[in-house]
Amino acid sequence: MKWVIRIAVIIFSIAGLIYKMPVIPAASGDKDKSNIRYVALGDSIAHGYGLSNPEEDCYVGQITAYLKNHYDYVFSANLGKDGLRSDELLEWLTDEKNENYKKCTATLKNADVVTISIGSNDLLHLIHLGPGMVQEIQQEKALFQKACDDFAFIFPQIIQAVKRISPKAKIYVGNVYNPCHGLALFEAVEGVAEEYIGRLNKVFQESKDYEVIDIKKAFLESDRKLINMAINLERVDPHPNADGHSLIGTLMIEKMIENGVY
């Protein structure tokens, strides 16, 4: 009988402790009481080239500001680099000997949201500015076709590398706009550029692995000046201006909201 009495004493003791413990309310689970990790990958567009205050005015900064209004803590890192091509980004993600590998993969680890801007420089690095630019592009057609074919091979590897490093991340990819659209000085270039930009954008197909942001369509339909395009061929800047980045940021945020990022 002694063991029965001992068990009874223990039960009553535990019940007494529970009775004295304060009531702790369960967590609400509200989105504004949580953390989020955001990493931007890409080229000079992600980096904010040409903006007076790139850290805040580029679309990455705008997404970060939005997230900070809805989460207790936001980790945000912009790994965009001017002139970056798709093959170089892939090396950042997969080549342990690359100088950017450790920083890139460590920053990406456990990311919740990843945005990617890549592809433009795969074509731009082949272009030499000058009066004979259109003729050169037409003559070097094989080079531009190869660049598009290479991108089609490389881009899926970039996505898979990001998913391998950060399996739970939701990935948002912006496609490539035509910087020559609507500019009289570059009218002859627009049609040629459209052919190869179109081939790049076919690579960005809707996938369960990532979301596509149709920046090209939005820029085409806008009646605002969205690009820092110069007025002569000696100084051409095809990057988005502040309004262009604002539009990109809005499009990406809208897509994130659709996916439950508040």
Textual characterization of the structure:
It contains 12 helices and 5 strands. By secondary structure, the protein is α/β, with parallel strands linked by helices. A 5-stranded parallel sheet has the order 2-1-3-4-5. Helix 5 packs parallel to helix 9 and helix 9 packs parallel to helix 10.
Helices, strands, pairings?
Blueprint lengths: L1 H19 L14 E8 L1 H4 L6 H4 L1 H10 L4 E6 L7 H9 L6 H8 L4 E5 L2 H5 L8 H7 L1 H25 L4 E5 L12 H17 L7 E3 L1 H7 L20 H17 L4
The whole-angstrom Rg is: 25 Å
Give the amount of beta strand, in percent. 5-15%
In sequence order, what are the helices and strands, one letter per element?
Answer: HEHHHEHHEHHHEHEHH
- Provide a count of the helices: 12
Secondary-structure class: alpha/beta
Widest sheet, order of strands: 2-1-3-4-5
Oligomer: single chain
**What would the average pLDDT be, to the nearest integer?**
82
**Total E-strand runs:** 5
TL;DR of this structure?
The chain is of the alpha/beta class. It contains 12 helices and 5 strands.
